[in-house]
Amino acid sequence: DPAALPDARALDTGETVDGEEFRLQSGEDECWLWMSATPIHGEDGVERVTIVIEDITDRTERERSLRAFREAIEQAGHSMYLTDTDGTIEYVNPAFEEMTGYSADRAVGATPHILSSGEHVEEFFADLRSNIESGDVWAGEVTNERQSGERYVVSQTIAPIADENGTIERYVAVNDDI
């Protein structure tokens, strides 16, 4: 409906209409636009409208992909968490909370050491860190401890996540309770 567009509303109301998103589709082609309209007032009211339009198709597609990715992580049957390069947990999925008994509020900001059962020697973790810090994926079995104190064994894979320059920014750990 053309009357619903920001420029028509700015013309009709005399007020700025800011930051609205629109989807345009022609056949199989689709684009997303952000539009704002500012009326320019004269002696007899609004004389004209200044319109700013930005193509936000790429941003919208990235946001859609990120939402789909987040949903996949949230629904995954495996416990997953992300850490920064210092090992501080930045994110845990609901399966992590269920498996470990630690809430996201308790786990985020801590290190994976909160899961330590004391069963593995320091050399085990030094080898793990050496592998992932060099950019390799580490996989193995780890005996962890739930918040309740109960021990459990996971098949764990830890992979580095690098930026476009190859610099490691964080790590992702995927755990399957075995």
Dominant shape: elongated
Count of helical regions: 5
Terminal residue distance: 57 Å
Total strands: 8
How much of the residues is beta strand, in percent? Answer: 35-45%
Explain what this protein looks like in three dimensions.
- This protein has 178 residues and is of the alpha+beta class.
- It has five helices and eight strands.
- It has helices at 6-13, 57-75, 94-100, 104-107, 122-133, and strands at residues 17-26, 29-42, 45-55, 79-84, 89-92, 138-145, 151-162, 168-177.
- The protein has a five-stranded antiparallel sheet. Strands 1-2-3 form a three-stranded antiparallel sheet, with helices on both faces.
- Strand 7 and strand 8 (168-177) form a beta hairpin.
List the helices and strands and how they pair.
Blueprint: H1 6-13, E1 17-26, E2 29-42, E3 45-55, H2 57-75, E4 79-84, E5 89-92, H3 94-100, H4 104-107, H5 122-133, E6 138-145, E7 151-162, E8 168-177
List keywords for this structure.
8 strands; 178 residues; 5 helices; alpha+beta; 5-stranded antiparallel sheet
Concise description?
This protein has 178 residues and is of the alpha+beta class.
